[in-house]
Amino acid sequence: MSDARIYLDHAATTPLAPDVLEAMQPYFSRDGYNPSSIHAEGRRAREAVDSARECIAGILHCRPKEIVFTAGGTEADNMAVIGAARAARTRGKHALATAIEHHAVLHAMRALRDEGFDVTLLPVDANGLVDVERFADALRDDTVLAAVMYANNEIGTIQPIAELAEVARSRGVVFSTDAVQAAGTLDLDVTKLGIDALAISAHKFYGPKGVGALYVRDGTPHEPLIHGGGQERGRRSGTENVSGIVGMAKALEVAERARIETNARIAALRDALEVKVTAACPGVHVNAKSVQRLPGISSLTFAGVDAESLLIALDLAGIAASAGSACAAGSLEASHVIAALGAAASNGGTLRLSLGRGTTQEQVDRVASLLPSLVASQREGATLSV
Ligand code: PLP
Q: How far is the CA of 263 from the centre of ligand 1 (A)?
């Protein structure tokens, strides 16, 4: 991407950080051996995987053996949901998730439904927040699993995970959280959060794509989804992605070190952007504004605007942004997250601007000055074509 372009789609993916690439480099070539081999080369690769596991476990405040490496967030979410539910199916066949989970969780729940599970999707309020009492009421005697994402990928809403997990634990329900958007930004201390499973994905925090991890609390009933050579203590077979795992650990370590300052800087830029855009643009609604949300996500619904046309106009103006989730394979279907928020969010086109480490004040100023006129011309165009 040329310097002149402005990348505001960090929630879709982040660029690989140079120090992360540097840490990965030896494992593509010089040290690219199989960690299961017993020779010295293999043992070196095993050491790299083990030390990455220790590093991630340190940040999550768990034991290294509770970390399972996966091929990304989607696989970690599927493992968390399907693996835990299948392992508990003799106890009960009810699972719970929020209506605004990522498709990686929602479609895993759909697969459980096909296996005979009963699945409840819990509604959220207009800010995308789960109500703790409503969550408690939705748990049943036969509930075996509850999945609530830590922070939403489209609107940024942060859920009261510790409170929800406590309710689930008191009812003997496995509590799993999709922390794919939270990792690198929020506190991932699984002991403080009191959760049983947590999924992360490296490419959301300046690590490589196609590698993730699932924390599974020791003793949590769990069935593997992928069978084979018995790697990852039999929980996820397949030769480990050594370079990816090393890169993920490095990326998480770097992000964790600067988390608080980076969050403050990005939130200030995001807030300034919203102030300017809302002042210059009539008919704009800022989603999830009145609740705790991720610092880098701004979800804006513009009345009378088609999101896809606005995205194209922004792209032509040199700004890379997104409507709902970019994970829906390039499609712009109506977002289930925005629909779940109700009228204020659904009444218009929703734009997701997601800021990151490299976002500058100049970039934000440029977007704030361009966006209102792009919105106005979209609206004019819509009026003329009626
Ligand atoms: N969960 C959330 C909240 C996400 O935002 C994403 C990706 O956008 C995923 C899961 C899937 O992760 P991955 O792209 O690593 O498969």
A: 20
Which atom belonging to ligand 1 lies closest to the Cα atom of 212? 15
Domain CATH code at residue 350 = 3.90.1150.10
Residue 331: pLDDT band (50, 70, 90) is low
Q: CA-CA distances (angstroms) from residue 70 to 214, 224, 235, 245?
A: 7, 11, 10, 9
Per the CB < 8 A criterion, the answer to whether 143 and 94 are in contact is yes
What mean pLDDT is predicted for residues 347-373?
96
Is 62 annotated in the active site? no
Task: Tell me: do 61 and 76 sit in the same domain.
Answer: yes
320: DSSP letter = E
Distance, CA of 353 to CA of 203 (rounded, Å): 18
Domain encompassing residue 249: 18-257
pLDDT for res 325: 45
Collapsing DSSP to helix, strand or coil, 67 comes out as strand
- CB atoms near residue 38 (< 10 Å): 9
Residue 1, in any domain of the structure: no
pLDDT band at 326 (very low <50, low <70, confident <90, very high): very low
Inter-axis angle of helices 361-384 and 242-280, to 10 degrees?
A: 60
What is the C-alpha to C-alpha distance for residues 56 and 41, in angstroms, rounded to an integer? 23
